[in-house]
Design a protein that fits this description.
Blueprint: H1 5-13, H2 18-34, H3 38-44, E1 48-51, E2 54-59, H4 62-83, E3 89-94, H5 108-118, H6 121-128
Parallel strand pairs: 2-3
Antiparallel strand pairs: 1-2
Helix pairs in contact: 2-3, 2-4, 3-4
Length: about 140
Amino acid sequence: MEKTIAEEVSQHLGHLEQASVQAVLEEIITDYKEAHKNMEVAVMRQPFEIREEAIHFLLSGELQKDIFLKCKPELTGLFRKKLSHARVEVTYEVKEEAQDQSRNLYTSTDKFRYLLEKSPMLKALKSRFDLETDF
């Protein structure tokens, strides 16, 4: 049987390996540093996963997403060239961090409730010493 061109290409491409992708990424980061593309370097330093033929970056916010989208075409081309893998894709996912509740504590009552969750003994101290949280 004759093999199609696509089958032959897929045999030669193989799967992506973490070590080779990491090495190429370090090269790209070095090139970007020399070009003073510091924002892009910060995005490329985010963790990534290999998912079949995709290098999937785990970004931590909308700002990183915007920067990533601007450099994605160039990054995809560099990975394809340096890995000699024509079907490599570069993708991303924004991991939303749980918002820290302590940043939204405006009033004394809010602060006291937050501290009360951390240390229930505060309630006993408040009643024992007849303390007021609203001042």
